[in-house]
Every structure is written in structure tokens, then in C-alpha cells.
Amino acid sequence: MYNQHKQTRSLRYFIKQKTSHQRRWAGYFQYFFKQRTPAEVLVFGFASIIVIGTLLLSLPIATKTGEYPGFINTLFTSASAVCVTGLVVVDTGTFWSLFGQLVIMLLIQIGGLGFMTLMTIIFVISGRRITIKDRMVLQSSVNSKHVQGVVKFTKYIIIVSLMIEAIGAILYATVFIPEFGVAKGAYYAIFHSISSFCNAGFDLTGNFQSFTAYIHNPIINFTSCALIIVGGLGFAVTSDIYNFHSTHRLNIHSKMVLTATLFLISAGTIAFLVLEYNNPATLQSLSLPNKLMTAFYQSVTTRTAGSNTISQFDLTRTSKLVTIILMFIGASPGSTGGGVKTTTFAVLLLSLKRVFTGGKDINIYGRRISTETIQRAFAIVLTALILNSIIIVLLTLLEPNIPGLSLVFEVYSAYSTVGLSCNVTTQLGSISKLLIIFNMFTGRVGPLTIAYVITRREHGNKQQGNYKLPKGNILLG
């Protein structure tokens, strides 16, 4: 009886200590938040996860042979997973052990849902109160319009993501379990469902072949496309669609995202079908239905997914250029994808239309787009173009033996967190890999977010002073 009482007290002490440690760590996180702006929290948060992933992948048990891949390659893999890119310097299926693959899968899940989503889970489990400052960081992380209800929205993100990934895993399992057996097939299904929904592009098929072996399989093709599209729409849009049965309306953001997504996927499918129709290395040998399915997959995967059913190296030059354009535009705000975003692309087109037609305001769906939104769209695109141009120039100097178009393809794939490659990634030198890592990280957290960290200014701060300088006339064009 005495021993039983002693064991009970020991168990209570252990639980109390464990809870105490959880609360202490949550307290450290909250103290960190109080000292940092929301932009700084996001940047440092993602960077911290990448560092932790690098350390875990550096362990001997992370590789099948115990071989250390080197710091740069480990950092590259961790950054690619957290930034949900999919560019790899070693083959995921054959180089990493089960432990290493599970670490990569966890990093993809954290990177896809967002650093602050993970922090919210920690706060809820530890019982810590989520402050107004925490909610402001969450608002910035999940692209919510309002601070009010942001915690509830974050919980919605977690639940919906897990449900969609579960459905995707079940569909994948119908192919992988008959092929690999129950245990391995189920594991493959879960891994690829998470990778596809988070628009990561990592795969376990081996030898850098992605889904090329399943080019004729409609379940793999359409399941992957569905996960990629839903993940790329953004959680605000999926929430709006889910609530449509009660509201009977979609907000302007959702309408713009759905319109732009439908247009880009349709235009991309037609373009790839026409450009690759007679290419013997891609579509020529396929039947017409398979050609349509493959062109559709290629159009969808350029939206920052990264998996592929045809070799990107074998695409025609024109198709590579079309792929670069689609990668640059990317997915939608608040999603698991990257790029400058579909709404940014739409706002720029509408702004261009206003210039050509001489209109005063940009109006769409009975609403006027603010000047601040237009300026932000131009800032995002211009910053991305400048950054990518600089990195392209540097890579052409560092990698003179790699074709220029392939380097351009690689740079935009990294920035837009796509993961498609023309077989270039493994050929890059250490400095070039560091440049790609920086580009992936910038593309994931956003160039303007990093700019706010450097200047220590948040978007929306009021201008200092109550005066304006005289207007200056500058000739353009």
C-alpha cells in the first residue's frame, strides 16, 4: 500500500514537472513575442524551425547508411521542407531513413500550416492565455482580415487540413497499398498526401522520379491535383466556400481567387497540351485522354506544388518559359503555396486595364480596390523581380556550365516554393545552394515581411509628420 501511494505521488510529481516545463517553454515563446514585431516573429520562427530540422537531419539515424550529407545539404533539405518547396539535393526516398523522412514530413506539415499555427497548438495544450499581441502575429501569419476570431480560425485551419490530408491519404492508399503492402503503402499515402496538400513536392518514389511512373494512373493524378488546388486556394477561401450554404455569398477575395485560379489552370492546360503535343520526350506517345490529364497536372503543379509526371528537363523551351510564368504567379494568399499570389496578379492586370482605359478607380464585383492594395501589389512583384534577377546573375557567374534557362527555372522555382527542377539542384555548388536557400526562405515568409524586419516597420504604420512635400512631375514611358 505504501509503495502504491509512493508510485502515485511520483507519477503526480512527474506530470506536474512535465506540465511545468511545457508552461515554462510557452512562457519563453510569449516573452519572445512581446519583444518582437509580428514580422520578426514570423521570420525568426521559420528560421528556428529550419535550424531544428537541420540538427535533426544531421543525426546518424536520419540517413539509411548513417552517412552525413554535409551541413549545406542538410540545411538545404530542412529549408526546402519548411518552406514547402520540394527542391532536393539528395533523393528523399533512397537517402533518408524512416526517421529522416518522418522529420521531413513533420517539417512540411509545420511549414505548410505555418509557424504560428504550431505555436497556437502549444499555447492551447499548455493552457497559456493567448494575448492580443499573439493574436496580431496569428493574424499576420494566416492572412486573416481581423484579429477577432483569429484563434478560432487557426483551429479551423488545423482541423480542415488534417481532414483533407486524411481523405487524400485514403485515396492514395488505394494505389500504394496494393503495390507496396499495408504498412509501407499506408505510410506512402500519408506522406504524399501531406506533401501534396502543403504544396511541398517531396516524394518517396526514389531516384528523383516523382510521379513519372504514375503518368497513366488517374487516381494519383487527380488526387494530387485536388490536394494541390485546395491547398493553394487559401484557408480563407475554403472557409468561405464551406459557409456558402448558409451565407449564399462569396466575398470579393474568394471570387477573385477562384476566378484567377480557374483561368490560370485552364490557360496552362491548353498551353502545355499545344506546346508538348508532338514532343516525343513528353506527350507524343500518350493517348489524347492521357495527354489532357498530363497537361492538366503540369498546369496544376506549377502552382507551387513541385511534383511532376513528366520530366521538366525534356520540356520545350517555350513550355519552360510558361512554367516559369505560372510558378512566379503561384498560389493564393493564406495558402500552403508560394509565388507572388493570384490576387496580386489579378490586381496588376486590373490596374493595367485602368491605365489603358483611362479609368479613375479599379472596380471589380461591385467593389473598389484601394490604392494601398494596388501599391502593395506593385511592391511585391517589383521586389520579387529584382531579387530573382540578382540571384540569377550571381548563379550564372557561379555556375557557368549550367544552361541559363535552367538556372532561371531553378531560381523562380525556389522563390515561388514550387520545387520543379530541370535536373539542376544536385549540380549546384555550396554558395549557389545557399543562394537558393535564401530565395526559398524569402519566398516563403515574403520579401515585404523581411523588409519590415530590416526596417523594423510594420505594414500599416502611420507616416511621420502631418505635412506633404510639393508634387514633382516625372515623365514615364
Word description of this protein:
With 477 residues, the chain is mostly helical. The chain has one domain. The chain has 20 helices and two strands. Strand 1 and strand 2 form a beta hairpin. The longest helix has 33 residues, at 2-34. The radius of gyration is 23 Å and the shape is globular. The protein starts with a helix and ends in a 22-residue tail after the last helix. The model is unreliable at 2-8 and 459-465 (pLDDT under 50).
Secondary structure elements and their pairing?
Elements: H1 2-34, H2 38-57, H3 71-82, H4 92-95, H5 98-113, H6 115-126, H7 132-142, H8 150-180, H9 182-197, H10 218-233, H11 235-242, H12 244-247, H13 252-276, H14 288-301, H15 317-329, H16 342-357, E1 362-364, E2 367-369, H17 371-398, H18 404-415, H19 430-445, H20 447-455
Antiparallel strand pairs: 1-2
Helix pairs in contact: 1-6, 2-3, 2-5, 2-7, 2-20, 3-5, 3-19, 5-9, 6-7, 8-9, 8-10, 9-10, 10-14, 11-13, 13-14, 13-15, 13-16, 15-18, 16-17, 17-18, 17-19, 18-19
